[in-house]
Design goal:
Elements: H1 4-15, H2 22-44, E1 53-57, E2 68-69, H3 74-79, E3 88-92, H4 103-115, E4 120-125, H5 127-130, H6 134-139, H7 141-159, E5 166-171, H8 173-184, E6 191-195, E7 218-222, E8 243-247, H9 258-268, H10 273-293, E9 300-303, H11 307-311, E10 323-325, E11 339-343, E12 354-363, E13 374-381, E14 384-390, E15 401-409, E16 416-424, H12 431-441, E17 453-461, E18 467-472, E19 484-488
Helix pairs in contact: 1-2, 2-9, 4-10, 7-8, 9-10
Enzyme class: hydrolase
Active site: 172 (nucleophile), 196 (charge relay system), 281 (charge relay system)
Family: Belongs to the AB hydrolase superfamily. Lipase family.
Length: 505
């Protein structure tokens, strides 16, 4: 087994972005050293028996295990009222510290039954193996997967179960368990959904040693906690399915407190990892549950070559299956292979937001290398308003350049009617640049020309795919600190007019 992944995770968790006392550092270092000393013996450790149990839960009691289907026992199928003509879901949990099912299991079962009332929802119980040192549990995922494959093969033979109607849903380590199950069944199963597949010991591994597109006819994956930029990856960073979704870039989830999580680990040691990473790691489960419960409000994701391009709003296209619903009803990307999709979400359910690309052309006669103002936008629509939304500036704003921004709203404001844009100077502007600005505004001084001007804003709405152009409502509006209002132009998206507009004073 590899140890590098654990070293990176534990070092970063104890050291990044937090200030701890010397005593806390000493305790954390000691706990980490002791953990590393255990690794040689843990790698040799094996479970005496690796087995899974299969609980067919009921819609009326989604939290409790009242009936188990036993491999090789046809009577257990009758006792549990297994429906041979309906869809069958296998829900597979991940690593556990407590040895108990987490609360999300029952919620996912209930959501599946709400969407598919006649389905069979089977919870795979491998708690006795999962409640172990992570290294041992990770090693045993392959054997648990083989155990599940034996169960599926028997079910197919006994009940003539159509594997096209079989859907495995695995969280964390459970995602790789699902992959190993799919890899070992006699005939290929219909679908596997991986919910933030575990990263340590699987990141960068060969396709046969982790969840991969080869494990089912269709494999879709949600990545919610792969902080590669911080050297920390609880979930996998690499694409491992036919389509991989990266909500919020896959590294940060709104409403989750990373700093608090790291402080908890610094205070309580490495055994606090499970609680500390729970919010962002488990968000993948709740995003999938959301897609079951809110079919009409499911999040839409977009194919994109990189997170940076998506953050600029450059990927909001649905042409040629370049966008898809994220979660249960994944659509247009089904035929793609290794498609990476991005979306933004809210902090709570329903998670859907509405994406807009804003292309703003800045023109200026002022000779400067670029500035970094604070840009705030308000959108006014037929169904409501979204006010004071900050545009993320990825590069300095330079005159005579067009800049693209991604903007999201948490509610559907309907048809966009008006845009208000506010430009505020940042305090870190240099003295020399401010002097040039003041000089350009001084009466009678035209040596530096006019200041930055904005004439039009081109907008693309991701969810509706509508393109619109907004023109400055009042070209005579004075003052740089005032909001500039833009209303719909009659020109098309690609039409370029003469650049005459607001002079900022």
């Amino acid at each position: 087994m590899k140890t590098r992944g654990y070293q990176v995770i534990l070092l970063v968790l104890c050291a990044h972005f937090i200030s701890v006392t010397a005593l806390e550092e000493e305790i954390s270092d000691s706990a980490f050293d002791n953990f590393l000393e255990l690794i040689p013996s843990l790698r040799k450790e094996r479970s005496g028996s690796v087995s899974a149990r299969f609980s067919l839960r009921k819609p009326s009691d989604p939290d409790d295990d009242v009936c188990y289907i036993v491999t090789g026992d046809p009577e257990s199928l009758k006792e549990c009222d297994f429906n041979t003509t309906s869809k069958t879901f296998l829900v597979i949990h991940g690593w556990t510290v407590s040895g108990l099912f987490e609360g999300w299991v029952g919620r996912l079962v209930a959501a599946l039954y709400e969407r598919e009332p006649s389905a069979n929802v089977i919870v795979v119980d491998w708690l006795s193996t999962a409640q172990n040192h992570y290294i041992v549990a990770a090693h045993n995922t392959k054997m648990v997967g083989q155990n599940i494959a034996n169960f599926i093969n028997w079910m197919e033979k006994t009940t003539h179960l159509s594997l096209d109607h079989l859907h495995l849903i695995g969280y964390s380590l459970g995602a790789h368990v699902a992959g190993f199950a799919g890899n070992h069944v006699s005939n290929k199963i219909g679908r596997i959904t991986g919910l933030d597949p575990a990263g340590p010991d699987f990141e960068g591994a060969h396709a046969h040693q982790r969840l991969s597109p080869d494990d089912a006819h269709f494999v879709d994956v949600l990545h919610t906690f792969n902080r590669g930029s911080l050297g920390l990856s609880i979930g996998t960073q690499q694409p491992v399915g036919h389509v991989d979704f990266y909500p919020n870039g896959g590294s940060f989830q709104p409403g989750c407190n990373l700093r608090g999580a790291l402080e908890k680990i610094a205070k309580f040691g490495i055994f606090a990892i499970n609680d500390a990473v729970k919010c962002e790691h488990e968000r993948s489960v709740h995003l999938f549950i959301d897609s079951l419960l809110h079919k009409q409000e499911a999040s839409q994701a977009y194919f994109c070559g990189s997170p940076d391009m998506f953050e600029r709003g450059a990927c909001l296209s649905c042409r040629k299956s370049r966008c898809s619903t994220m979660g249960y009803d994944v659509g247009g990307a089904r035929q793609a292979r290794s498609a990476t999709m991005f979306t933004k979400t809210r902090a709570s359910m329903p998670f859907r937001v509405y994406h807009y690309q804003l292309k703003i052309h800045f023109s200026s006669n002022l000779n400067c290398s670029g500035v970094e103002p604070t840009l705030t936008v308000s959108l006014h629509g037929a169904n409501g308003d979204a006010k004071d939304l900050h545009l993320n500036i990825n590069e300095k704003i330079a005159g005579n350049n067009t800049h693209s921004f991604l903007l999201v709203t948490e509610k559907d404001i309907g048809e966009l009617l008006m845009i208000k844009l506010k430009w505020e100077n940042r305090s870190k502007w240099t003295t020399s640049f401010m002097l040039k600005m003041v000089s350009s505004w001084w009466p009678g001084d035209s040596t530096l020309g006019s200041d930055m001007e904005v004439h039009k804003i081109r907008v693309k709405a991701g969810e509706t795919q509508k393109r619109m152009v907004f023109c400055l409502k009042n070209p005579e509006t004075p003052g740089v600190s005032q909001e500039l209002s833009f209303v719909k132009c009659k020109e098309s998206w690609k039409f370029h007019s003469k650049r005459r507009g607001l002079r900022r004073q």
